[in-house]
Specification:
- This protein has a single domain, classed as Alpha-Beta Barrel (TIM Barrel), CATH 3.20.20.70.
- The protein has an eight-stranded parallel β-barrel with strand order 1-4-5-8-9-10-11-12, surrounded by eight helices. It has a two-stranded antiparallel sheet with strand order 6-7.
- By secondary structure, it is of the alpha/beta class.
């Protein structure tokens, strides 16, 4: 008697059959490339992120041209601000002649169709190293910070930013930024909200890159507890109601379950940030010969996509785009 049973392997028997049955697809269209910039001269390698540097504005132009040639058409800027410009109120964050607005104008003058995303938060500009204004008693002030973030967002929109991305995790900031942008006439500027940004230990190399670590305490009173997922649903509902166009989960790799939960809870596009610590681990293992860099990077990015991310912020954007193109 013939014993019948399912044979899933028939759909794996060749590369062509596997391609036809593939459920998740990854391409350069899914990437946003994070770039660090500074106001000095020359590019400064970031020790904890091999292959990444703080770029001067000339270096930024060269790097973006390379990204466009590789098929990556979206970037996000993070500024390393001179200590002399930092203050407790972060006024430099909305200086129209500041580093980020000048960089945006220069980029847009050469590549009008480049998608430029900007970070909205005070930590690069704060003498306290926090994402918001700190009270004399050491508490990060929510509403006072939101007022400054709205000014920062409008300043970036005036310079030509396409997408404003508040990463601060203050309550109500998405609504305030949307209102400020609309009042200033920037109704077409999008908001990509850092909706579920966790108080993660994976941010260390990023803070080295920008010298933006908190000068005291931590960020646990405003960034999310890594143990929570239901709380992320509350944040999604709030950001969606306040006018976010896209929502983000950060970090990506350790929070794939959160990406999936967010994907299932909102019709908005979902982004995920493969953060500096994730990059540093993969890069270190590859440099030591312990892992095949191309294979593990593409597998990790595919996993983020499979979890539900429509967009991935990754320092591997250029390399991944080339690997995907060349096979």
């Amino acid at each position: 008697m013939l014993h019948l049973f399912d044979r899933p392997r028939r759909n794996r028997k060749s590369s062509w059959v596997r391609a036809m049955a593939r459920e998740t697809h990854l391409s350069a269209d899914h990437f946003i490339y994070p770039l660090f910039i500074h106001d000095g001269v020359g590019n400064v390698p970031i020790q904890s992120m091999p292959g990444c540097s703080r770029l001067d504005l000339d270096g930024l132009m060269t790097e973006v041209e390379g990204a466009l040639n590789d098929g990556v058409g979206a970037i996000v800027l993070f500024p390393a601000v001179d200590e002399s410009l930092k203050s407790s109120l972060g006024e430099e964050s909305y200086n129209p002649e500041g580093l980020v607005p000048r960089a945006i104008r220069r980029l847009k003058a050469k590549w009008p169709t480049l998608t430029v995303v900007t970070d909205v938060a005070l930590d690069p500009y704060s003498s306290d190293g926090h994402d918001g204004i700190v009270s004399p008693y050491g508490r990060v002030l929510n509403d006072e910070t939101v007022a400054v973030l709205a000014k920062q967002a409008v300043c970036q929109a005036e310079a030509g930013a396409d997408i404003i991305s508040p990463s601060d995790m203050m309550d109500g900031r998405v609504g305030a930024i949307r209102e400020a942008l609309d009042a200033a006439g920037y109704t077409e500027v999008s908001i990509l909200a850092y909706t579920a940004k966790y108080a993660s230990a994976f941010y260390g190399p990023f803070r080295d890159a920008l010298d933006s670590a908190p000068r005291f305490g931590d960020k646990k009173t405003y960034q999310m507890d890594p143990a929570n997922v239901r709380e992320a649903m509350r944040e999604v509902a709030a950001d969606e109601a306040e006018g976010a166009d896209m929502v983000m989960v950060k970090p990506a790799g350790p929070f794939l379950d959160v990406i999936r939960a967010v994907r299932e809870s909102t019709p908005l596009p979902v982004a995920a940030y493969q953060v500096s610590g994730e990059y540093a681990m993969l890069k270190a293992a590859a440099l030591n010969g312990w892992l095949d860099e191309k294979k593990v990077v593409l597998e990790s990015l595919t996993g983020i996509r499979r979890a539900g991310a429509d967009v991935i912020l990754t320092y591997y954007a250029r390399q991944a785009a080339r690997w995907l193109r060349n096979g």
